[in-house]
Amino acid sequence: MPNEIPPLTDKIKAEISALIDAFNAKLPRNCAYKARYNGCYLYLSRADYGCAPQPICRLEWRGKSNDWDFVIYKHSSNKYDPNEILYPGMQHIDGTVEGALQCGLEAYPL
Known about the structure:
By secondary structure, the protein is an alpha+beta fold.
């Protein structure tokens, strides 16, 4: 099938892990993004200053490293909200994990 999305492989996950580690190295000490996977979804959370990680966003793998689908987490409703389209940092959403990480810093400042 020509439209079949390639799977999210361990190799791709390792590349994402390295990317997140590099991004975290630029953050203040004791602040770090964490990744968790469930099927085609990448859940990004961030631990700030020794607190438990808090959800930031969910990305859906669409077959390319620059074509993730982004959904912000709304703490006011405690859910990922695909209908939420206006939030700080949205200008960084470009289909990449880096864009999602940068958006998270503006949507949920340190």
